[in-house]
């Protein structure tokens, strides 16, 4: 589609010749007028791509004024037509930023070149302006404050957020040094902070503000901020200015303070708790141990954090512990186990380890929290209970055996007594029968002791010599306990006889 040209010329022959040449060059002439006053209205109606404007026109308005109005209103490129002009007229024409000049009389080749250059320049300017508009719209829409300066640190741009935080109107801030508008101090020292633009221009690289930086607005309001400043480079790599991006971190500071207070309360509770507590991150690294844990291990928190705590795990328990531990992390599920951990004195103690996954309000996994309890004494009590239960079982077995054996002894002792009465004393069998009865009585006594041991014998009070009872019990116990167990007795002399079962 041909480019549309509008001609403003007050000489009829020039207009006719110009139209013919433009048409032969492939352009479409949408109209012409000899009056500058009509040029603006016709341009709005005909919507040409370019205007050829004679500088000297008849009437109250010349071509320069008309071109200036067209540029402001229609944003169209204007090329001046002139035969001659004085210096003052040319200076006026330059102010309107024309896209070219064509001297009368003009040649077709010159006409083509000037028009194409003007159209190309106009399209380039339009693209640049559109890019700048999009860029400005983007900067004006983001939530961060943005300030741009030239290579001397003079402000060339502020977005609305920057105007709001600094409390400087855009019209007043533009053209001022950055340090005058962007006044920052240290929160603790109250001393001014180095201007980031100055640092960027000096070193030619990105610069960030230190923590605890306060922006003092135009009206004296203090706002905690964080920011970064970066150099602006041209196509040749030269620094042509600085862009500063900063944000109000008041809410962030409040949230950080709340987190710090919450963490402090947690540490106080954990350190005061009667159990050992620990905390991990999402990477399975331990990041906290309570004071009871550090007292137990005798190590510092720096030594225990990450995977340092593993050195205290008894070697025989390591594979089992780490397998349970890893599976719990993968499945995000609670776990509990017992294992042995070295205490500060080098003694391994039984610990009950419990871990529970932590989830945020958004149900995101945030690590594990857990506790350890020293259950060594409990384990010893369990062993004692098991031993008691074992002895009770032995007693029950002994009771059953003793009852059955006692029934057999009654028969043996009864028949041996009959033999003694019926066999003459001088007969050798009489002596043998007495030995049988004596052995039966000793066996009956042993059975009675077994019944006492199993608490199944009826209580029969009678005078007893304790040393004799202990000696008899010792004989029985030596038959019952394993050979690898030593049995020692310590008997007092001259004990009184007591009455007992």
Task: State mean pLDDT (0 to 100 scale).
Answer: 83
Number of alpha- plus pi-helical segments: 16
Approximately how much helix is present in the residues?
40-55%
CATH topology of the largest domain: Rossmann fold
Largest sheet properties: 7 strands, antiparallel
End-to-end Cα distance:
130 Å
The CATH superfamily of the largest domain is known as Response regulator
Quick description:
Helix 2 packs parallel to helix 3. Strands 6, 7, 8, 9, 10, 11 and 12 form a seven-stranded antiparallel β-sheet that branches. This protein has a five-stranded parallel β-sheet with strand order 2-1-3-4-5, sandwiched between helices. Strands 14-13-17-16-15 form a five-stranded antiparallel β-sheet, with helices on both faces. The protein is built from 16 helices and 19 strands.
Report on the structure:
Helix 2 packs parallel to helix 3 and helix 14 runs antiparallel to helix 15. It is rod-shaped, with a radius of gyration of 54 Å. It has helices at residues 12-24, 36-46, 63-74, 87-95, 108-141, 160-166, 170-173, 178-181, 196-203, 250-272, 291-297, 301-304, 315-331, 376-422, 428-453, 466-480; strands at residues 4-8, 28-33, 50-54, 78-82, 100-103, 145-150, 155-158, 183-186, 207-208, 213-216, 222-233, 239-248, 276-280, 286-289, 335-342, 348-359, 365-374, 462-464, 498-500. It is 48% helix and 22% strand. It contains 16 helices and 19 strands. It has four domains: 4-135, Response regulator (Rossmann fold), CATH 3.40.50.2300; 143-248, 2-Layer Sandwich (Beta-Lactamase), CATH 3.30.450; 255-374, PAS domain (Beta-Lactamase, 2-Layer Sandwich); 459-501, no CATH class. With 501 residues, it is an alpha+beta fold. The strands form four sheets. Strands 6, 7, 8, 9, 10, 11 and 12 form a seven-stranded antiparallel beta sheet that branches. It has a five-stranded parallel beta sheet with strand order 2-1-3-4-5, sandwiched between helices. A five-stranded antiparallel beta sheet has the order 14-13-17-16-15, with helices on both faces.
């Amino acid at each position: 589609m041909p480019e549309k040209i509008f001609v403003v010329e007050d000489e009829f022959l020039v207009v006719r010749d110009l139209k013919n040449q433009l048409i032969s060059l492939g352009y479409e002439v949408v109209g012409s007028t000899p009056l500058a006053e009509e040029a603006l209205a016709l341009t709005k109606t005909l919507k040409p791509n370019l205007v050829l404007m004679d500088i000297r026109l008849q009437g109250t308005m010349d071509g320069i004024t008309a071109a200036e109005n067209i540029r402001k209103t229609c944003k169209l490129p204007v090329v001046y037509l002139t035969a001659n002009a004085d210096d003052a007229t040319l200076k006026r024409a330059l102010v309107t930023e024309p896209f070219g000049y064509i001297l009368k009389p003009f040649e077709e080749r010159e006409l083509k070149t000037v028009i194409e250059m003007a159209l190309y320049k106009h399209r380039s300017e339009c693209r640049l302006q559109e890019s700048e508009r999009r860029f400005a719209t983007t900067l004006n829409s983001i939530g961060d404050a943005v300030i741009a300066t030239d290579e001397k640190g003079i402000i060339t741009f502020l977005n609305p957020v920057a105007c709001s935080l600094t409390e400087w109107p855009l019209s007043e801030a533009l053209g001022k040094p950055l340090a005058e508008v962007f006044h920052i101090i240290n929160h603790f020292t109250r001393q001014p902070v180095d201007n980031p633009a100055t640092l960027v221009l000096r070193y030619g690289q990105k610069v960030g503000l230190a923590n605890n930086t306060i922006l003092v607005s135009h009206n004296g309001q203090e706002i905690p901020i964080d920011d970064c400043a970066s150099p602006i480079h041209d196509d040749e790599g030269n620094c042509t200015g600085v862009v500063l991006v900063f944000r109000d971190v008041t809410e962030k500071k409040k949230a950080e303070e709340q987190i710090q207070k919450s963490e402090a309360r947690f540490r106080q509770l954990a350190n005061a708790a009667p159990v050992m507590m620990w905390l991990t991150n999402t990477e399975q690294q331990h990041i906290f141990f309570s004071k009871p844990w550090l007292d137990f291990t005798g190590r510092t928190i720096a030594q225990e954090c990450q995977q340092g705590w593993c050195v205290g795990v008894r070697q025989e328990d390591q594979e089992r512990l780490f397998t349970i531990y890893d599976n719990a992390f993968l499945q995000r599920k609670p776990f509990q186990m017992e294992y042995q951990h070295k205490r500060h004195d080098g003694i391994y103690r039984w610990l009950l380890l419990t871990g529970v996954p932590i989830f945020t309000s958004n149900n995101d996994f945030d690590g594990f929290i857990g506790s350890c309890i020293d259950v060594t004494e409990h384990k010893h009590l369990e062993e004692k209970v098991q031993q008691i239960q074992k002895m009770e079982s032995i007693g029950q077995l002994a009771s059953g055996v003793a009852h059955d054996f006692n029934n057999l002894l009654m028969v043996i002792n009864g028949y041996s007594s009959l033999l003694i009465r019926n066999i003459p004393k001088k007969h050798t069998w009489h002596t043998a029968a007495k030995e049988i009865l004596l052995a039966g009585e000793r066996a009956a006594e042993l059975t009675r002791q077994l019944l006492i041991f199993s608490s199944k014998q009826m209580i029969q009070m009678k005078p007893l010599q304790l040393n004799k009872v202990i000696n008899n019990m010792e004989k029985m116990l030596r038959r019952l306990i394993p050979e690898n167990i030593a049995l020692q007795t310590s008997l007092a002399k001259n004990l009184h006889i007591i009455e007992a079962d």
